Every structure is written in C-alpha cells, then in structure tokens.
C-alpha cells in the first residue's frame, strides 16, 4: 500500500530558480496520476524529488506513511522509467533486468522467475540475450519497463517514456501502459507535455505551469472545465 503526499513542497535551484512552489497533492494507493504542462514547468523536478534524485528545498514528501525527505533513492520503494531508456549498453536485456535484483541479493531462481514473467507481459522473451544496441526504440522502452517491473515497486514513475517513439508506436505503447497499470495494481505517476497522453491515460491529471499546480481533476472534468 503506498499512496503519496506532497506537503507544500518547493524546489529552489541555485540562482533562486523556483522550479516547484507550494506543491500540495495527495495520490491514492494504486491511482494513475499524470503530471502535464509545458517544458520547464517543473514536472521532472517534482518526479525527481519523489524518487530522491533531487533534494527537497522545503516541504515534505510521504510515500505511504514514511516521510522520505532524507531517505536515499535505493531505499524508496520506487522504480523509474526515463525517456532515454537508460539501459546498460554492455549488458544483455536479461542482465539489465537482473541488475537491481542481484544488488539486492535475490536468489537466482527468484530473479529468473521475475524476469521470465515480466518478459512475457511485455513480449520481450525473444530478446533476452540481445544487447540494447540490437533493439528498436520500442523494444528498448519495453526493456526499461521490464527492468522496473521486476523490482515489484509500490510506486512506478515515468518521465516522458514515449517521447522518443514514433507516432504509431506511441499510441500502441500508451495503451499497453494503461493495461500494465491495471495488471500491476500499483501507483503510477506519469509525466508528459502531451495533452492527448494526459487526457487518455490517467485517473487524474495534475496541470502545472511555472512550478505551480493550476488544476487537479479527472480527465473528464478537465475536458468540461478547462
Ligand atoms: P519540466 O520537466 O516540466 O520540463 P523541469 O522540472 O525540468 O521542468 O524544470 C523546471 C525548471 O527548473 C526550469 O526552469 C529548469 O530550467 C529549471 N531546472 C531544472 N533543473 C535544473 C538544475 N539542475 N539547475 C538549475 N535549474 C534547473
Ligand atoms: P553471473 O552473475 O553468475 O555471471 P549471469 O548474469 O550470467 O550470472 O546469469 C545469471 C543466471 O541467469 C544464470 O543462471 C544464467 O544461466 C541465467 N540467464 C542468463 N541469461 C539468461 C536468459 N537469456 N534466459 C534465461 N536465463 C538466463
């Protein structure tokens, strides 16, 4: 069980750049929430603070009941998928997916079971022995999703995961991510600048501009009261 709470969160970068201000939000356990807004409005910064990749300047972030301000990234029950995939180029797909589990000293059988299951869900069973450079963009993004899934995190973070894919693949992968959310029953936070993605993917949309939240509502209500 892990909902999220942001309490009056700020991020101020050196030079007094207020990237995120007065950010207040509660996300329910298993909810799918999309952060949307133009480039530079603070979406990634908010996600990175949640993942522990960026310090919180002011305010509090809770994952479940835990205040995570001082919890290092590896101790947050979170997996993140980036737009550039961030796969290890010298490792096979299998080893990319196994890496985090090996670090956590999971038994080999357990690692193998998790990778086999995730590969089946994503349709990448045939690529397990390949290196990333032998994969298409869509296949790489599946591997990145697979690497996140095997960790069985409480919270899934995705930062513009489709923006390097062509239009057709984007539509297809969008539908697959929605299905994945239904199947995993996990909290999803998804960042995009694409309004169509936002309107079609989330249970709720958080519209951001200049570091502040402008509106939080269901896609239906946003459509009716823009
Ligand atoms: P988005 O994800 O919505 O495109 P970001 O969170 O990346 O927005 O950026 C929000 C603001 O913070 C922008 O004005 C950006 O230039 C600034 N910013 C982001 N990262 C840094 C950084 N490391 N140092 C200084 N300013 C930054
Ligand atoms: P090690 O870290 O001991 O060198 P590897 O990373 O090579 O081990 O592999 C870990 C385990 O996963 C081994 O038992 C290996 O046989 C198995 N394995 C590696 N690649 C695949 C694959 N593509 N499909 C199924 N099992 C694999």
Automatic annotation (TrEMBL):
What's an example GO BP annotation here? carbohydrate transport
Name the domain of life.
Bacteria
The residue ranges of the ABC transporter domain are: 4-226
GO MF annotation terms: ABC-type transporter activity; ATP binding; ATP hydrolysis activity
Keywords, comma-separated and alphabetical: ATP-binding, Nucleotide-binding, Transport
Could you state one GO cellular component term attached to this entry? ATP-binding cassette (ABC) transporter complex, substrate-binding subunit-containing
- Name of the protein this chain belongs to: sn-glycerol-3-phosphate ABC transporter ATP-binding protein UgpC
Q: Which organism is it from?
A: Tissierella pigra
What gene makes this protein? ugpC
From which residue to which, out of the full length, is covered? 1 to 226 of 365
């Amino acid at each position: 069980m892990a909902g999220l709470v942001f309490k009056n969160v700020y991020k101020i970068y050196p030079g007094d750049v207020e990237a995120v201000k007065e950010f207040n939000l509660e996300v329910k356990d298993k909810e799918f929430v999309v952060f949307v807004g133009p480039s530079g409005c603070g979406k990634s910064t908010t996600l990175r603070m949640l993942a522990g990749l960026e310090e919180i300047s002011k305010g509090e972030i809770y994952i479940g009941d835990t205040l995570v301000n001082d919890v290092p990234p590896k101790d947050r029950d979170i997996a993140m998928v980036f737009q550039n995939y961030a796969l290890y180029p010298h490792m096979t797909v299998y080893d990319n997916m196994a890496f985090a589990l090996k670090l956590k000293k999971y038994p080999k059988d357990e690692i193998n079971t998790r990778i086999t299951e995730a590969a089946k869900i994503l349709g990448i069973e045939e690529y397990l022995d390949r290196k990333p450079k032998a994969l298409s963009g869509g296949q790489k993004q599946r591997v990145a999703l697979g690497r996140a899934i095997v960790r069985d995190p409480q919270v899934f973070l995705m930062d513009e995961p489709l923006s390097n894919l062509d239009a057709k693949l984007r539509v297809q992968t969008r539908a697959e991510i929605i299905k994945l959310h239904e199947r995993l029953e996990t909290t999803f936070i998804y960042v995009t600048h694409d309004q169509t993605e936002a309107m079609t993917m989330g249970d709720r949309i958080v519209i951001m501009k200049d570091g502040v939240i402008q509106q939080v509502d269901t896609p239906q209500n946003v459509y009716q009261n823009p």
